[in-house]
Amino acid sequence: MSAGRFGEYGGQYIPETLMNEIHALEQAYAHYKDDPAFVAELDGLLKEYAGRPSLLYDAKKLTAALGGARVYLKREDLNHTGSHKINNVLGQALLARRMGKTRVIAETGAGQHGVATATAAALLGLECEIFMGREDTERQALNVYRMELLGAKVHPVTSGTMTLKDAVNETMREWVSRTADTHYVLGSVMGPHPFPTIVRDFQSVISREARAQILEREGKLPAAVIACVGGGSNAMGMFYHFIPDKQVRLIGCEAAGKGVDTQLHAATIARGETGVFHGMKSLFCQNSEGQIAPVYSISAGLDYPGIGPEHANLHATGRAEYVPVTDDEAVDAFEFLARTEGIICAVESAHAVAHARKIVPAMSSNDSIILCLSGRGDKDVAAIARYKGREIHE
Amino acid sequence: MSKIANAFDHGKAFIGFVTGGDPTLELSEQYILAMARAGADLIEIGIPFSDPIAEGATIQEANLRALRAGSTVEKIFGLAGRARAQIQTPLVFLTYLNPVYRYGYEAFFARCAAVGVDGIIIPDLPFEEQGELRDICAANGVDLISLIAPTSKQRIAEIARCATGFLYAVSSMGVTGVRSELNSGLPGMIQLAKATAKIPVAVGFGVSSPAQAKAIAQYADGVIVGSAIVKLVEQYGEAAEPHIDRYVREMKQAIG
Predict the structure, then answer these.
(1) Cβ contacts (< 8 Å) between A19 and chain B: which residues?
(2) A127 and A40 in one domain?
(3) Residue B181 has pLDDT above 90, yes or no
(4) Which of A115, A347, B13, B248 can pair with B41 through a Cys bridge, CB separation 3.0 to 4.6 Å?
(5) Which run of H or E residues covers position A238?
(6) Residue ranges of E strands in chain B
(7) CA atoms within 13 A on the CB side of A255
(8) Domain presence at residue B1
(9) Cβ separation A20–B50 shorter than 8 A
(10) What is the ipTM of this complex?
(11) Separation CA A244–CA B190 (nearest Å)
(12) How do beta strands B201-204 and B167-170 pair?
C-alpha cells in the first residue's frame, strides 16, 4: 500500500504520467514545511497579507437567541479574499515557487478557491488558469470576473455535470498535459497524497489559533467545534488541533440539498460508499456500478460527490460526526445570522450555522462551541434572492 | 504464459480499442469481431466510467454514450464472453479502478477468467497501488498491464521488471486523443524498458495514422489505437463496421 493513508483511505490513484511529479511534491513539502525561511515567509504573508490571526468572535446575540452553549464564530470570512481558502493557497503558491514552477492551475466550485488562487498568483507573479464548471460560472459570474481582474484565465468546463467534480477532472487532465512548469493548487483536503496532508496542514492554522483563543477566553476547551464539509478543508482545519482533545465533539455539516432521501443532495457521509476517484480511496456518492453520481446543493462549494480521506477515517473511527443539512435549513440560517449578528456568511458556512441552531439550545450554558464561519456571503446574495423568488441583477 | 504473449509472436502487433456498449452492446460486439477479422492482434474493451480522467474528449464522449445506452459491468462481461466464443484474439479490459472496486476485486477477476478476458489496463492505478490487485489478478490468470509515461524516467526499470502481459508506453504528455506529433523521447523510453525486462512494449495515446504506426513499429512491439477507432464509431454509428475494417487493415499493413 502506498503512502498517505488515513486508515484504509487515501493513497495515490493517479495516472503514471503524474507519479514523478507527485513524488517531487511530497519531497518538496517534506523539506519546506520545516524550513525556517519558508515558514517565516508563509507566516508573514498570513499575517500581513491575509489578515491573520482571524477573530474568534463571541457571538452574544446568537448565544442569547439560541439559549444554550456560548457560541463563538471563527471568522475566516474576514480573511483577505473572504474565505479560509487563502490559508492553503498562499502555502501552496509559495511551495510551487520554491519548486521552480511558474504557472499554477486550480479547480473551483463556488469560485472562492479560484479567487484565492488567482490572488496568490498575482501576488507571487505566477501564471494562473482556473477550471470551473460552466454551471458554476453562471451561478457565480461575479467570481469569474474577479479572477479575470486578478489576471487569471478561467476555463468553463462543459464536460459531465459541469460542476466542481468536472472542474477537478479537467484540472487533472490539464496537469497530466503539463507538469514541468505547472503546479496544481488543489483546493481541498482531497486528491492523491500528499494533497490531503498539505492542505490540512495549511488549514490547521484555523484550529491552532482557535484552540489558543478559546482557552484564553473561556479557560477551558469548547464542548464542540462545527464546520461545513464539501471536500472538507475548512472542517479539517477547524478540527485538526482538537483531534487529540477527546472531550471536544467534532461536527461536520454536509450538504443535503433537497434532502438525503431525494436524488438531489451531496451528502457523501450519509449516502456515499467507499470507492476510488480523484486520486484517493474515500467515500463517494456513486451508484451500484461505481459510476460517480451527479450531486446537488444550493452551495456550489459543497456540491462535490466525495470527501477528503482523513474525514472518511474520522467518520470510520467515530472521532468526528457528520450531519446532513438541507438547502432550506441553510438558507434560513443564512438569513438568521444576518439578522441576529449582522453577518452575511457564505451559504456553505450557513450549513454549519443551521446545525448549530439545532444543537446549541440543548447544550449547557457553561459550555461553548466554536463554529467555523468559513467564508463571507457577498457571492451568494443574488442566488439567495433567487431562491426566495426575487430576481436581482448583479 | 498468458494468451497476451500470442499477440506479439507473429510480427508487430496492432491493438485496437472500442468502448463496450458504444453505441450499443450489439454494435460494439460487431466491431470487436470486425477488428479481429481485419487482423487486430489484441483487442481492448473499455468498461465505461462516468469520469475518465485520462481520456480526451473523444473517449469521454464514448463512455457517456455507452452509459446512456445502458452499458453495465455485467453486460460487458457478457459481451466479452460472446466475443471470446467467436474469436481467439486476446482480449483485455480498459477501465478505471472504481467500477472494479465496486464490483469487488475477487468477483471481478473471477468473472474475467470465466469469460476469457486475458488482461486489464487501469489508468488510475499506478505501480505503487497495484499491490491490492496483483495477487488476485495472478490467481485468476489475468495480466495486470502497467503503463510507462514520458515522465516515468527512473521508474521505468522497476515497472518493467514487475510487468505482466505487455507494457503500455504512453506516447506523450496528456490525455488520449489523436495527435499529429509524438514525443521524441519515445524510442529511448522503450529501450530503457527493454533493457530491464523481456516484455513486449506497445505504444498508445495519440496514434492514428499508418505513417505514425509504421514509425513506431521500428522500435516498439505494437501500436495501440483508441480514439481514432472511437471517432469512426462516433461518425458512422451503426454503419461503422466497414470503416473500422478498412482502417484496421491499413494500420496492420503499415506495421507489417
Answers:
(1) 126-128, 151-152, 155
(2) yes
(3) no
(4) B13
(5) helix A233-239
(6) 13-19, 42-46, 91-94, 119-121, 143-148, 167-170, 201-204, 222-225
(7) 29
(8) no
(9) no
(10) 0.97
(11) 50
(12) parallel
